[in-house]
Write a structure and sequence with these properties.
There is one protein chain. By secondary structure, the chain is of the alpha/beta class. The chain has 2 domains: about 200 residues, 3-Layer(aba) Sandwich (Rossmann fold); about 90 residues, UDP-galactose 4-epimerase, domain 1 (Alpha-Beta Complex). It is about 35% helix and about 15% strand. It is built from 10 helices and 14 strands. The strands form 4 sheets. A 7-stranded parallel sheet has the order 3-2-1-4-5-6-11, sandwiched between helices.
Length: about 325
């Protein structure tokens, strides 16, 4: 592997900042950067890292925490945080709440917050931004695999905010990553998108059947969190400047097939429960990953069965971290 694409060479000795560092992917990235020898990593989030139970025991001497809410913080405070930073991983975003999309929060954090960050980068001379975008920037729910050259047509406030963020970071030296469906240990209901994988494992461990909406023929592209983190770090390479990359497995998995695999891994004897079709009925969302493979030398290394097994093991090891109001009691298993 050329040094220009080697994660250790990209990170070692650098001063880095991670926004959204208390989140699912951000927390995992924070840990990985410390392992790779970053000189210093600033964890920026409106919640402290300890709010994420997977980071509660983090005591790395080369990290510091800063509580700032992008889009609502003082510009002077943000500029102070960025001074001396070599590169930023911008993962902070608002996406989901049970009562629907909080439009004002999404715009404030994802759009205005990104604009504020870009302006602060320009003022402080930050050399590189890696921006976490999303498949929702594409907008469409059917058809051929997503290609980075497709014309985006986002149809949700979240997707619009991510697409706007892509245009904003293009004003500085940046690489944009469009994550597909990232899963893995740490994706608890309290921290991040309520994944079908987490919800189904939680139900099975509590002795309840997983739920499949409609015929389960919906197809999604699942990528393990550690693979997504590796792609994120590789995006620091200069070859990725000004480029957009999909981060996915490049393979589609139906919900029906996913749940069958999960039942086998969990040893759950019962069948899945069928619920009425939802808004995802008939959808297919899969990425092409040729560009990131050829330009950044990245490819996912964790198979879906291995990733699912690791996710299940984390739930079994820390059931209290997956509890939420109205959820089955995981500890009954």
């Amino acid at each position: 592997m050329p040094d220009a694409l080697d994660p250790t060479a990209l990170v070692s000795g650098k001063r880095l900042l991670v926004t959204g560092a208390s989140g699912f992917i951000g927390g995992r990235l924070l840990l990985r950067l410390t392992q790779l020898g970053a000189a210093h990593v600033v964890a920026l989030d409106r919640e402290p890292p300890a709010a994420n139970p997977w980071l509660a025991t983090l005591h790395a001497p080369n990290t510091s925490s800063l509580r700032l809410a992008l889009g609502a913080c003082d510009m002077a405070d943000l500029e102070h945080a960025l001074r001396g930073v070599d590169a930023i991983f911008h993962l902070a975003a608002v996406k989901y709440r049970p009562d629907g999309e909080p439009v004002a929060d999404i715009v404030r954090t994802n759009a205005l917050g990104t604009a504020q960050l870009v302006e602060a980068c320009a003022r402080t001379g930050v050399a590189k931004v890696v921006f976490a975008s999303s498949l929702y920037a594409y907008g469409r729910m059917h058809g051929a695999p997503f290609d980075e050259d497709d014309i985006p047509t986002p149809r949700t406030v979240y997707g619009q905010s991510k697409r706007f963020g892509e245009e904003l970071v293009a004003l500085v030296r940046a690489t944009t990553l469009r994550y597909m469906f990232v899963y893995g240990p740490g994706q608890a209901p309290k921290h991040g998108y309520p994944s079908v994988i987490v919800k189904s494992f939680v139900r099975m461990l509590a002795g309840e059947p997983p739920v499949v909406h409609g015929d389960g023929a919906q197809v999604l592209d699942y990528v393990f969190v550690d693979d997504a983190v590796d792609a994120t770090i590789r995006a620091l390479a200069s070859v990725g400047d000004g480029r957009v990359y999909n981060v996915g497995s490049g393979a589609g998995t139906s919900i029906r097939g996913l749940v069958a695999e999960m039942r086998a891994i969990a040893g759950f004897p019962g069948e899945a429960e069928t619920a009425p079709p939802d808004a995802t009925a008939g959808t297919r969302r899969v990425a092409r990953v040729d560009r990131i493979r050829s330009e950044l030398g990245w490819a996912p290394t964790t198979s879906l069965p291995a990733g699912l097994a690791a996710t299940l093991a984390s739930i079994r090891a820390h059931p209290e971290r997956y509890e939420r109001e109205g959820a089955p009691d995981v500890r009954r298993a």
